[in-house]
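This part of the workshop introduces the protein records we will be handling. A record pairs a protein's sequence with a compact description of its fold. As an example, a complete record with its sequence and its structure tokens follows.

_____
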Amino acid sequence: MATATNPVEPNRCPFCERPIGSAGAGFMDHIESNPDCNEAFELWRERVDGDMPGGWAG
């Protein structure tokens, strides 16, 4: 996971740090085929959703 000293790389998964095809569709393909990353992404979304007024639309 990215930290203050380890920023997010747009062509790497922020959960497992493996290369992905792109930050958009490539990331979605990656999490759909990697259950651990999908679970981490869903947990992240739940946490972000609670922090944003009106929820997160992404």
